[in-house]
Amino acid sequence: GKVPAGSILASAPSDRNLDAWRESGCRTTHCNLEVLQESTLVFLATKPHVLPGVLQEIRPAVGPHHVVVSMAAGVSLQTLQRLLPAGTKVLRLMANLPCVVQAGAMVFARGGCAGDGEAALLKSLLSSCGLCEEVPESYINIHTGLSGSGVAYVYLFAEALAEGAVKMGMPGGLANRIAAQTLLGAAKMLLETGEHPAKLRGEVCTPGGTTIHALHQLEKGALRATVMNAVEAATNRACDVAKD
């Protein structure tokens, strides 16, 4: 709600990719250069292999008044700065799927010519979509393994939670809703209390109770080590994509 839809101009090669923008009231075009002519804040949301061609196309139109934000996975600030005119204010952003319900987790890093003003502008705009933090660029691939891919880990865990309840006799629809609310409530407590997860976990456990018996089974299944391995594998793959 911070930017009127009519102030946004989106460009894509096909109408199919622009339908959602039109439905939201945004203006659309098939000309990337038109976006540069009419906008000062420009988001580059392309596949990584497409981005160099787009940068080559728009390079003549990029001026000192533009702020360019890349959302392309694996394309470094160094590459962006090399392919754009010297002195361009460039930032690199990585988001995740829950941004579509305004509960995303985003990190960004700024290039050498982007200052505090550009960073504050980006953070202010994106805070409407969830958590937004400025980080060193080296953290962006870690964010991909933790949060970008991590959403899928949570969906898998939610599915397993609900299936456990179904196994014990609860209807599937109800089990799915309760599993989702359980994850939402646990995450909200983490964010609002600022407590370490281990402390909150300890507060749920009572001596000889249900939770400690359940946690014992999760430990036997090496849940923590497996999740840590998943984050490591996804981070390493993100690094490999950056090298390709």
From TrEMBL:
Keywords: Amino-acid biosynthesis, Cytoplasm, NADP, Oxidoreductase, Proline biosynthesis. Residues 137-238 form the Pyrroline-5-carboxylate reductase dimerisation domain. GO terms for cellular component: cytoplasm. Pathway: Amino-acid biosynthesis; L-proline biosynthesis; L-proline from L-glutamate 5-semialdehyde: step 1/1. Transmembrane segments: none annotated. The keyword Cytoplasm applies. Its EC number is 1.5.1.2. NADPH binds at residue 32. GO terms for biological process: L-proline biosynthetic process. The keyword Transmembrane helix does not apply. It is found in: Cytoplasm. It catalyses: L-proline + NAD(+) = (S)-1-pyrroline-5-carboxylate + NADH + 2 H(+); L-proline + NADP(+) = (S)-1-pyrroline-5-carboxylate + NADPH + 2 H(+). It is an enzyme of class 1 (oxidoreductase). One of its GO terms (molecular function) is pyrroline-5-carboxylate reductase activity. Residues 8-74 form the Pyrroline-5-carboxylate reductase catalytic N-terminal domain. Coiled coil: none annotated. Its main location: cytoplasm. NADP(+) binds at residues 45-48. Oxidoreductase that catalyzes the last step in proline biosynthesis, which corresponds to the reduction of pyrroline-5-carboxylate (P5C) to L-proline using NAD(P)H. Proline is synthesized from either glutamate or ornithine; both are converted to P5C, and then to proline via pyrroline-5-carboxylate reductases (PYCRs). PYCR3 is exclusively linked to the biosynthesis of proline from ornithine. Homodecamer; composed of 5 homodimers. PANTHER family: PYRROLINE-5-CARBOXYLATE REDUCTASE, PYRROLINE-5-CARBOXYLATE REDUCTASE 3. Belongs to the pyrroline-5-carboxylate reductase family. This is Pyrroline-5-carboxylate reductase. It comes from Baryphthengus martii (Rufous motmot).
